């Protein structure tokens, strides 16, 4: 029986890999299933490392023409891709909900967010400026060019199957690079649909390639992308553990890398905060995508004077969140992605309760992969929820007394992706913003990500930036020209 969502997708349903402008219908295929109920969505081409080699060579052959195209030509194609994404936003949203699980309204928002990166870098393609440096000699001139780095590879996660793709692909294409995308095995259908729209926009054959594979073959393809000397850049979003492995595999070829890895974001609420705003921000930062975001608030650090009020109001609002299948009307939170994610959620919850945490709401046995939003207080640093990223709808609240303690608790992590804090004290704003060890800080807001802003972390959350005018720097080399005899 065909999944109801698939009937709504039409011609954008692609189940073959895209290599060299052709859809590669491989004889070996893997299943993509709805995480909410396990129903089969499609069977997709399952490529291996040999096909990855072929795709790398095709991307290398396509590079000279694309790199030498004008900025205006690349910009026009990206602009058309952006327009097509918006034209097909409903179909793309249906695909996202079907294979990733988030509510349809949230999926629609992701499509618009994903499109914004294509629009942004369509414009940035025309702004890859060089420099003229004052020369120490009158008979010399010094110039700096910024040129496309070459063939690039991107490995994208399942939690934002559209936005993580465009955030990596668009700047590479804008800079004049060709690219090989390896989407997560859980969510290849969104990636293939977006690639189809890119081809419709006029993307030349071989410039944008999509290598689909199951879990085992994904490991082999990822290893080949890391080791192949013709691939000059690798961008990856995922766990810190996998990021370390990829970095080691890239070392022999000294490949440039952009790594956006695990987060363990602190969410700090001071006594002088606007509690209404803090609770609203907490709900967004914690429960968006069922807590399965890299910048998700993971550790709530609340000052003693407002602790009880904040916990009570967060618990009350959390209990009102409707959990269910993403296609059901009014649903605000979908399922976790798989059984492993559910098991991790329950392990963190059980560990915290065993070590003395107080349960305020949620905490019930999950119905399949549907997990109730859960709020804990009396959390301490010995608990897993304080030391590891849960990646689920578990709000763990700990109490602090003064600013110094809040900073120490917030920075007590190997991760440094995002942090949030709420205060009305302008002096504290600057002290906290500068003291927090992270790449992004939300001050009196739980929403921080926009195409025009740099996204990325420090410490073991990785390096490199996506989005903003800095994002294109990851895909260009600097070339210094010294002109003498003038």
From TrEMBL:
<dbReference type="InterPro" id="IPR050740">
    <property type="entry name" value="Aldehyde_DH_Superfamily"/>
</dbReference>
<feature type="domain" description="Aldehyde dehydrogenase">
    <location>
        <begin position="26"/>
        <end position="480"/>
    </location>
</feature>
<protein>
    <submittedName>
        <fullName>NAD-dependent succinate-semialdehyde dehydrogenase</fullName>
        <ecNumber>1.2.1.-</ecNumber>
    </submittedName>
</protein>
<feature type="active site">
    <location>
        <position position="260"/>
    </location>
</feature>
<dbReference type="InterPro" id="IPR010102">
    <property type="entry name" value="Succ_semiAld_DH"/>
</dbReference>
<comment type="similarity">
    <text>Belongs to the aldehyde dehydrogenase family.</text>
</comment>
<dbReference type="InterPro" id="IPR016163">
    <property type="entry name" value="Ald_DH_C"/>
</dbReference>
<dbReference type="InterPro" id="IPR016162">
    <property type="entry name" value="Ald_DH_N"/>
</dbReference>
<dbReference type="InterPro" id="IPR029510">
    <property type="entry name" value="Ald_DH_CS_GLU"/>
</dbReference>
<dbReference type="GO" id="GO:0016491">
    <property type="term" value="F:oxidoreductase activity"/>
</dbReference>
<keyword id="KW-0560">Oxidoreductase</keyword>
<dbReference type="InterPro" id="IPR016161">
    <property type="entry name" value="Ald_DH/histidinol_DH"/>
</dbReference>
<dbReference type="Pfam" id="PF00171">
    <property type="entry name" value="Aldedh"/>
</dbReference>
<dbReference type="InterPro" id="IPR015590">
    <property type="entry name" value="Aldehyde_DH_dom"/>
</dbReference>
<dbReference type="InterPro" id="IPR016160">
    <property type="entry name" value="Ald_DH_CS_CYS"/>
</dbReference>
């Amino acid at each position: 029986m065909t999944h109801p969502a698939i009937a709504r997708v039409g011609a954008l349903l692609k189940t073959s890999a895209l290599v060299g402008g052709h859809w590669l219908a491989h004889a070996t295929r893997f299943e993509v299933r709805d995480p909410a109920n396990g129903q089969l969505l499609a069977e997709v081409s399952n490529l291996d490392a040999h096909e990855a080699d072929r795709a790398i060579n095709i991307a290398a052959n396509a590079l000279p023409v694309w790199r030498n195209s004008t900025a205006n030509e690349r910009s026009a194609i990206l602009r058309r891709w952006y327009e097509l994404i918006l034209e097909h936003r409903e179909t793309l949203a249906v695909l996202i909900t079907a294979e990733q699980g988030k509510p349809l309204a949230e999926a629609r928002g992701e499509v618009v967010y994903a499109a914004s990166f294509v629009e942004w870098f369509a414009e940035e393609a025309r702004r890859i400026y060089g420099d003229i440096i004052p020369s120490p000699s009158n008979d010399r001139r010094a110039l700096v060019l910024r040129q496309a780095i070459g063939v690039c590879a991107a490995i994208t996660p399942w939690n934002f199957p559209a936005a993580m793709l465009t955030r990596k692909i668009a700047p590479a294409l804008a800079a004049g690079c060709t690219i090989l995308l390896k989407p997560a095995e859980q969510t290849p259908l969104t990636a293939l649909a977006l690639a189809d729209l890119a081809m419709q926009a006029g993307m030349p054959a071989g410039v944008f390639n999509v290598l689909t594979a199951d879990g085992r073959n994904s490991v082999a393809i990822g290893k080949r992308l890391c080791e192949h000397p013709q691939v000059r850049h690798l961008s990856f979003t995922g766990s810190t553990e996998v990021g370390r492995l990829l970095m080691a595999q890239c070392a022999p070829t000294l490949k440039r890398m952009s790594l956006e890895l695990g987060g363990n974001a602190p969410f700090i609420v001071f006594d002088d905060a606007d509690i209404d705003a803090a609770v609203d921000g907490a709900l967004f930062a914690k429960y968006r995508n069922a807590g399965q975001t890299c910048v998700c608030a993971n550790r709530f650090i609340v000052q003693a004077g407002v602790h009880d009020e904040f916990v009570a109001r967060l618990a009350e609002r959390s209990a009102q969140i409707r959990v269910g299948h993403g296609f059901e009307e009014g649903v605000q939170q979908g399922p976790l992605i798989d059984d492993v994610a559910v098991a991790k959620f329950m392990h963190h919850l059980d560990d915290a309760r065993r070590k003395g945490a107080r349960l305020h709401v949620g905490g019930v046995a999950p119905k399949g992969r549907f997990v109730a939003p859960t709020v804990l207080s009396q959390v301490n640093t010995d608990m897993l929820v304080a030391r590891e990223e849960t990646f689920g709808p578990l709000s763990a609240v700990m109490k602090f007394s003064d600013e110094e303690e809040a900073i120490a608790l917030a920075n007590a992590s190997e991760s440094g992706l995002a942090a949030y804090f709420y205060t009305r004290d302008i002096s504290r704003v600057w002290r906290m913003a500068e003291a927090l060890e992270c790449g992004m800080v939300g001050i009196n807001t739980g929403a921080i990500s926009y195409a025009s802003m740099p996204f990325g972390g420090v410490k073991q959350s990785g390096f490199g930036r996506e989005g903003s005018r800095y994002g294109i720097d990851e895909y260009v080399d600097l070339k210094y020209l010294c002109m003498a005899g003038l």
